[in-house]
Write a structure and sequence with these properties.
Elements lengths: L1 E5 L5 E4 L15 E4 L6 H17 L6 E3 L3 H16 L15 H4 L9 H8 L7 E3 L2
Length: 133
């Protein structure tokens, strides 16, 4: 398995080959291969920053920001690195895997549910993304 990151939105994906289209931002042929040894807190924080920037450039949602609490971010990074080390996707660490590959793709970070949660609760379930005030 190889790790890939979208150079537009920061989406992280693990598979034998990079997808032709980013499942998150829908841009084509935008993945760079990343060595697992390079996936650390700073790498993930950079990916999350890219995701926030991309999400805030879309017009259909409220503006969000990355949680400024370093302790929360480090905990989420550790959980995500653990998933990647086990050959799993960059799954949202606060979600439970169903075992159904298609259903579980919805919980690759940023998960399918983050925006609704931010709109309702002012933060996503794992508190990675919060509403700008």
């Amino acid at each position: 398995m190889k790790i890939f990151r979208c150079n537009i939105c920061g989406y992280i994906y693990q598979d034998k080959e990079a997808p032709c289209e980013c499942p998150f931002c829908r841009n084509q042929k935008v993945f760079d291969q990343i060595e697992l040894a390079n996936v650390n807190y700073n790498f993930l924080k950079d990916a999350w920053d890219k995701q926030v920037k991309w999400m805030n450039n879309t017009k259909y949602q409220i503006e969000i920001k990355l949680n400024p609490d370093e302790e929360v971010l480090r905990g989420l990074a550790e959980a995500m690195i653990k998933n990647l080390n086990q050959g799993k996707q960059a799954y949202c660490p606060c979600r439970v895997l169903s075992g159904n590959e298609l259903a579980d793709k919805k919980i690759i970070c940023p998960c399918y549910f983050y925006m609704g949660e931010v709109e309702i609760n002012k933060k996503c379930h794992c508190s990675l993304y919060i509403a700008k005030e």
